[in-house]
Specification:
Blueprint (H helix, E strand, L loop, with lengths): L1 H33 L3 H14 L4 H28 L2 H14 L4 H10 L30 E6 H12 L2 E4 L7 E5 L5 H12 L1 E7 L2 E6 L2 H7 L3 E6 L9 H8 L7 E5 L4 E6 L1 H14 L5 E23 L5 E4 L24 E4 L3 E16 L2 E5 L4 E18 L6 E23 L4 E16 L5 E15 L4 E3 L4 E10 L14 E22 L28 H7 L1 H8 L17 E5 L2 E4 L4 E14 L1 E7 L5 E8 L12 E6 L2 E7 L7 E14 L3 E13 L5 E2 L2 E3 L1 E5 L1
């Protein structure tokens, strides 16, 4: 039995020693951690875990200390690198990576510091290509043309490349001079289209169509593509309006669909616009930065209570008659039996007195060291504490219509503890702006009916700190002193001796709150050299293919005279609709148009006059159930006499009034060109005619002018 007893005692002492050593190492590690001596803290925590591997608190403390030590050495490495101390900085990076080997951001930063670029395997973004390509040789042409027919030049190029070229019904032939030496077939066609204000589309591998560069024709022949963009960091709904604005052109608005469930953006547009959207989304869809915020919060409060002196239980002096004649009813006496001559007939009451010598001193210290990690521009909220019930009593009637006399007690719960709200913002200068809202609520005692009294400390502030910079918020000091003196009237005022007939209660309360804040930037928004480059947008109608972008200035120089001659007219009247010389005509182009429902389209209002026009007004009519007129854009015809020509437009339901007048009384408008661009929207299916009526025109001399009108037919399918 003795051997077994000794064995049990030895085993118990062994386990007690293990527990005591582990607890001692844990306390030493906690002390070193409070002093921010991270290496010492890790060493003590590792010993504590070795002594007691089953203690979860030791493992958690070791993990926390390793993470903090890694962050500390990372900041130290950055500081040393900024000072140019490469060797010491490298040692700090190695320590940071040793404490947190899974941190890829630290490893990447260390590689960049050692100038060892890591090859990225990110695939190159695929460039959209037309599904049908021309199969022509890459042989360059050596051809020059002088005042040659435009149609014949296209046909000569087609014969050289062995392809077919067809022409749209509104194609207009014209003489042109151009040098196409050293150009491949598609480049030559692009430059020729640029010079003649046409564009081309590939029909199949051996066929190309040449089309006048007009808004309606662009809508008719423009090739569209659909692409789905999967977003990783942005909310798809947040970029919808921005994409609509950036991708809108003078011809059309993009079709964009947002899927909230998959967080995708689907775009249907031209290949050039889809490539532009892809570049913008790559620049926008970046992960937000992250920060770690170290807080140290200390609330120190002290309460002193001192009670000294004579405490009278009831400060009352009383005398009453208790002799013969006193009845059982208090306050009633028999006058015949009253005897006031003896002292035994009276009673006297005196207050009881206690001498109190009480003094208390209470110190309270609340310390918290939360470490918060969050994303930039997002609120970080944490609450550590408890909920205290506060009773509330209301009175209700027992029966309907009665008096409210039955008490009903309910409870509301107030949160007591530490409440922190922060919103970090990371700047490009490696600085952090913090919007801070801190509330410290604690129990300060009890009041009436033992209802808890809750004291509150609240801080609201916005500060900007550097990475790793510590800011101290203090000075929220509250110092309150109360002194109460009770005693016998007159006697308590006697110097020195008055303290024998009085009691003094003195209460002193002091409290202070100290807060330190240290932000650490974990990662910033990834930026590359490509992100700083501008996104170039191809001019609408300038080139038809990507190849035409090369040598654009050369083509413009070769055709400068031709372009200047053509720039005088905003929209040319098609040859098929040209009127005889001497007739004044106002027409709508195109004459026939078929458009899908919901699509926006444009109609040109063209004018041709052989006489000077001093003023003109007209009315447009259409079916508002089929099409809706959204806007009227002033054309180039009225700019003959300057940019400040009075131009009238009045859009109403189903009609529109347009007009202009010459700013010079003796001079008018002559020639032909585009008077206005009418922007319509196909509202519902059906057919309508856009008619011209009420045309009133006068010459500068006041003579009335006659005009012939040509209407337009629109079918919405």
């Amino acid at each position: 039995m003795r051997k077994k007893s000794w064995l049990i005692i030895i085993i118990a002492l062994f386990f007690w020693g293990c527990v005591s050593f582990g607890q001692q190492y844990y306390k030493l590690g906690n002390k070193a951690e409070m002093s921010k001596e991270w290496d010492e803290a890790i060493r003590y925590y590792e010993k504590a875990v070795q002594e007691n591997p089953q203690e979860y608190a030791y493992k958690l403390a070791l993990t926390r200390a390793r993470f903090s030590a890694s962050l500390f050495h990372l900041q130290e490495a950055r500081r040393l690198a900024a000072q140019g101390d490469k060797d010491e900085s490298l040692k700090a990076y190695e320590k940071a990576l040793a404490y947190d080997p899974r941190n890829r951001a630290v490893a990447e930063e260390m590689r960049r510091f050692l100038q060892r670029p890591v090859s990225t395997e990110e695939p190159e973004p695929l460039k959209l290509e037309y599904p049908v390509k021309l199969k022509v040789s890459r042989e360059k042409v050596e051809i020059k043309f002088a005042e040659a027919s435009l149609r014949s030049i296209f046909q000569a190029l087609a014969k050289h490349a062995r392809v077919n070229i067809i022409f749209d019904e509104l194609f207009k032939d014209m003489p042109i001079t151009i040098d196409l030496s050293g150009k491949e077939f598609e480049e030559a066609v692009s430059y020729l289209c640029l010079a003649s204000r046409n564009f081309y589309r590939v029909i199949d591998e051996r066929t190309v169509i040449i089309v006048p560069d007009q808004p309606v024709k662009r809508l008719q022949y423009e090739q569209n593509a659909i692409k789905v963009f999967y977003l990783s960091n942005l909310n798809a709904q947040d970029i919808f309006a921005a994409l609509q604005q950036m991708l809108r052109t003078q011809y059309r608005a993009p079709n964009i669909f947002v899927d909230k469930n998959l967080n995708t953006v689907t775009i249907r547009d031209t290949p050039a616009n889809i490539e532009l959207a892809a570049q913008l989304i790559r620049k926008w869809d970046k992960p937000k930065g992250e920060v770690i915020i170290d807080l140290e919060i200390m609330e120190i409060s002290r309460q002193k209570l001192r009670e000294v002196g004579l405490d009278l239980d009831q400060a009352l002096f009383g005398l009453r008659y208790a002799g013969p004649g006193a009845s059982e009813d208090e306050g009633w006496y028999n006058l015949g039996e009253i005897d006031l001559g003896t002292g035994t007939s009276f009673q006297i009451s005196l207050p009881s007195a206690l001498i109190r010598f009480l003094e208390s001193d209470v110190d309270t210290k609340i310390l918290a060291q939360p470490r918060l990690r969050g994303v930039a521009d997002e609120e970080i909220t944490t609450m550590v504490g408890q909920r205290v019930p506060i009773p509330q009593t209301t009175f209700t009637p027992i029966a309907a219509g009665g008096v409210s006399q039955q008490p009903v007690t309910s409870f509301t719960f107030e949160e007591v503890g530490l409440d922190i709200k922060m919103k970090p913002k990371i700047h490009l200068e490696k600085e952090v702006t913090l919007e801070i809202e801190l509330k410290i609520r604690s129990l300060a005692g009890t009041g009436y009916a033992d209802i808890p009294i809750i004291s509150t400390r609240e801080i609201k502030n916005t500060i900007r700190l550097k990475d790793g910079e510590t800011n101290l918020l203090a000075g929220l000091l509250r110092d309150e002193e109360r002194k109460t003196m009770r005693g016998v009237i007159g006697l308590k005022s006697i110097p020195i001796l008055g303290n024998l007939f009085a009691a003094t209660d003195q209460t002193i309360e002091q409290s202070d709150v100290v807060l330190t804040i240290t932000p650490y930037i974990i990662r910033t928004v990834p930026r590359t050299a490509e992100d700083d480059k501008p996104v170039w947008i191809q001019l609408e109608g300038v080139s038809s293919t990507a190849r035409a972008e090369r040598g654009l200035e050369e083509a413009m120089a070769l055709t400068a005279e031709e372009m200047m001659r053509r720039a005088e007219e905003e929209e040319e009247i098609p040859e098929a609709r040209r009127e005889p010389v001497g007739e004044n005509v106002i027409s709508l182009d195109p004459a026939n148009l078929e458009i899908p429902q919901g699509r926006e389209f444009r109609v040109s209002l063209n004018i041709r006059s052989q006489q000077e026009i001093g003023s003109l007004s007209l009315n447009l009519g259409f079916n508002p159930q089929i099409v809706k007129l959204k806007d009227v854009i002033e054309g180039g015809f009225v700019r003959q006499l300057g940019d400040k020509v009075p131009f009238l437009k009045n859009i109403a339901e189903g009609n529109c009034t347009l007009g202009f007048s010459s700013p010079q009384p003796s001079r008018g408008f002559r020639g032909g060109g585009n008077l206005a661009i009418l922007v319509f929207e196909a509202a519902s299916q059906g057919e309508t005619r856009i008619s011209l009526a009420g045309i009133t025109a006068n010459a500068p001399t006041g003579t009335s002018l006659n005009f012939t009108s040509r209407e337009s037919s629109v079918i919405v399918r």
